[in-house]
């Protein structure tokens, strides 16, 4: 069952990430996404967090250090997914897909123009979920040599 994780319950999310996807903790604890409104959801099974997703509402262009994108005088915003993980014992059961769908639905109700995400090449399950939901894909190599893809979905 999906539930919103409030700021007061952020320790539950952080503890989960520390054991399931430790490389993502920096995006929750660090300063990467302090500039926007962050929204977190968790999939709870028998009272235990088994999957999570977190996104930041930000102006399109913020991360690229460009002026914000405007349309008809309005700054366009995106839901940038900054943490996404499902416990390995609970994968391939549709939990990740349901969490992604929750972000898409929630971002749409909050007026976001798109959902954006980034993932390194080794996150095969993440790719499968994104592709199945219809995200567009833009491969890239970062300056440090890390290979990954940006995913975008127009809302």
Describe the structure.
This protein has 155 residues and is an alpha+beta fold. It has one domain: 3-Layer(aba) Sandwich (Aminopeptidase). It is 26% helix and 39% strand. It contains 4 helices and 9 strands; from the N terminus they run E-H-H-E-E-E-E-E-H-E-H-E-E. It has a 7-stranded mixed sheet with strand order 1-2-3-6-7-9-8, with helices on both faces. A two-stranded antiparallel ribbon has the order 4-5. Strand 2 and strand 3 form a beta hairpin. Helix 3 packs across helix 4. The longest helix is centred in the middle third of the chain and has 15 residues. The model has no long low-confidence stretch (mean pLDDT 94).
How much beta, percentage-wise?
A: 35-45%
Specify the oligomeric state.
Answer: single chain
The total count of helices amounts to 4
SSE topology string: EHHEEEEEHEHEE
How far is the first residue's CA from the last residue's CA?
Answer: 24 Å
Low-pLDDT runs of 5+ residues are: none
CATH-defined topology: Aminopeptidase
Q: Can you summarize the main beta sheet?
A: 7 strands, mixed
The CATH class turns out to be Alpha Beta
Number of domains: 1
Compute the average pLDDT: 94
Roughly what percent helix? 25-40%
| CATH architectural arrangement | 3-Layer(aba) Sandwich
Shape: globular
Radius of gyration: 15 Å
